[in-house]
Amino acid sequence: MAMLRTVLLLEPIPTERDYMAEVLRSSGWSVRIPPGARPAPEDLAAADAIVADLDLAVREGWARAVNPTPPPAPLILTSRFRAFLEHISARVAAVVHKPATAEALLQALLQALRLSTREAITLSRGEATRAPDPLDDPARDGELDRRGLRSTMPDPELVAVAELVARGVGTPASVVTIIDSARQLFIGATGLPRDLSIAGGTLRSWSFCQHVARDNAPLIVEDAREHPVLSENPLVAMNLVRSYAGLPVVLEGVGAVGSVCAVSGEPRQFDAASIATLQLAARLVSEQLARRAGLSPHMTEPRERATSPQTPESASALAARAEAAGGDPLAPLAPGDLVDDKYWITAVLGTGGQSQVYLAREKLLGQLVALKVLTEPDDGALLREAEALVRLRHPSIVQLYGWGRLQGARMYLILEYVEGESIHRQIADRAPQGGLMPLHQVAAIVRQIAGALASMHAEGYVHADVKPGNILLDTRLERAVLIDFGLGLRLGSGRPYLVGGTYGYAAPEQMIAEAADPQPSLDTYALAAVTYAMLTGRAPFQGASSIGTLILQQRGEITPASRARPGLSPAVDALFARALEPEPSRRIASPVAFADALAAALHASPEERAPAPPSGPSDGVPQSRGLVFRLSRTEAARRLGDAGEARLRERLEPADREALAATADDAALYPATPLVAYLHALGGEHPGGVEALGAALARAALPEMLNRLQVARTPEALLEVAGPLLRRFHTWGRLQVERTSTHSARVELWLPEGLAPVMCRHTSGFLRALLSTSGHTTRLVELHCGSGGAGACVLQVGWS
């Protein structure tokens, strides 16, 4: 009697496992199914063949991308993803697409057992018959367009879904995607790296979500570096994605249009609760997208699909293909291009008259850089910029890392990437709400840029194009950075005509023929014009045309800044009259002298003086204003009643009780220790009371301050001034805000010894009330807080 052949069956889904086991047993095979998560040695030793799900085979090491372990018997891989099977079919005995049919399973076993496990498997991916990729179908793209699903603008409701997924699953990032024939579009995201957030998507070939959409099936990857297909993905190579869990978003008439996914840069497992969170999110997104188009969100049957993996082309390959087709060798780069086999282009940052600036990620280390690429054959301006930058070293001057040439000999510079917005964008964003930049921020920016310009002048250079669009505010390092040195000139170069500059910001002598030699006063004039725009929200000279603006500059006709922003002192108007003087010999020559004069003039302004109450000596002890003490007791009495508030004070140590009673002056500073003890007692008596006291402080004191500062009532602008506002009430605590997406931010509050976590709760209430003045729906979640020692309390803020 012939011995039964044994199949070791490793399948995680019970329904599929039971079906395959029944098929095999009814065909005369002996089936072993390990009782635990991993097969025992005796199971492996007894197996004549192994039928294993791809993920389980990766876990066992048999299908790893690097240094796989030879399986102990012929290996048959199963997966719902045809692209994965096609990619790995040449390395295993056979493959089966799930859900498996009896015919496919038995045919794979016969094929596997005809081959020795030690022979080279010569199956070629090219021999497989591939069905057309449905994601390439132009009709599908047309349907996505018809339903308005190919927009790269994030949807606030879908951003909120992504934030819920990230919190529920416990990953740093979550994305809601739409997949079309060429791109992966982010329509809701949180926690993405800056370059991907700016780009609003990636090439489809970079996308994990394309597999989810193509096969209309969940994809769970615990470690992409071990995956035989996804390990080659650029996002994995750049250490941006290591683990992934995604579920399809399905619409009637289209099928799976994209995915809701949770992403981490570290390997991890996804439990049943995580998958349930993603299932709920996918259903919410399907319903939201269906409501837009008046459709039913769900399809009843997933589609069977097949495709082959795609890889992005390098810049040189694109150039060669364009040249062969008669294309333009000066054509712009696009996200997904690989420059010099080193830099992945991920987004377009901006376009100028002679160049385009791209955000790129270094292939090996993942460093973000800015690539400035010429868009015309003459590289003189870019060479001048490189020559200047290589000699300049200052924290507020963008750094040059290197240079290169693209196919077609186009020159490009590799520059420091500054994470933040330009002053031009800051002014424009505040304008609709009537908000203006805070005086302290303007003074700090001017001081830093003046130092950068003085450093340039000392090296013999003039920038000659200082304007709001050429000053970036680095949100990560809290600094202003001067960029775009393409018009840079050597001092005393004797050029009769200074080509370029921006009307309204460039000094008038820079815009006319037969000008004198370039001098530092050119940059001082431009810095003063930028300062005026920051203070008032408008340029100092605004004619009906470029020539009209130049005529106003030559006449020195400027609207007093104090008229555009009431509260500025006459000293500010007098300073602008001198700094924007059309005659260079009567103008303030030095940018540092201008910055010093501006600081003095702003200090004399009522707007700057009024909000700052008198302060006493600090001696390093954390202190708070008497106003904080008084409002805390008032709010506690409102919540607990006078008798309850009195009992609260009785629970304090006698020294704290006496110190609390002595805080009679709202403007004076007092040690914060009694306040912390009082808040601790309140927190034990009334859950949520500490946050309520922080909110009460904000409601009582902030409206007048915000009106004085003329802050735009947007969440972004309010978070920007949150730190300075807190410092008006306390001498302790440093607040740092980092934008994590278009609708979210991470807030770190550094507290001295003894103040955490109670003052973190108090500050949370303060921030909630502050953000509520924006009129937006806001969410604030405490991610981490210390337990009494010095350190950071970390909050996540979102808005829609």
Automatic annotation (TrEMBL):
Residue numbers spanned by region Disordered: 124-150, 293-317, 604-624
GO biological process: phosphorelay signal transduction system
Gene3D superfamilies: 3.30.450.40, Transferase(Phosphotransferase) domain 1 (1.10.510.10)
An example molecular function term from Gene Ontology annotations: protein serine/threonine kinase activity
Keywords recorded for this protein, A-Z: ATP-binding, Kinase, Nucleotide-binding, Phosphoprotein, Transferase
Domain of life: Bacteria
Compositionally skewed regions (Basic and acidic residues) per UniProt: 137-148
SMART domains the record matches: S_TKc
Alphabetized Pfam families for the sequence: GAF_2 (PF13185), Pkinase (PF00069)
Modification 4-aspartylphosphate occurs at: 53
Chain ranges of the Protein kinase domain: 343-599
Chain ranges of the Response regulatory domain: 6-113
Protein name: Uncharacterized protein
